[in-house]
Amino acid sequence: MGPGIQERRAKARGRRPKSLREAFRALFSLDAPPRTKAVAFAVGVFVAFTPTYGLHTVTVILFSWLFRLPFSIVLLGSLVNNPWTFFPIYGASYVVGRWLLSFFPSCYTPMPFGVLAHQLKSFSWNDWLAKAPGLLLREGLPFVVGSLVLGVVAAVFSYFLVLWLLSIKGRGETQDGRGKDGDENSQGAG
Question: What is the sign of the dihedral through the CA atoms of 22, 25, 26 and 28?
Answer without folding.
Answer: positive
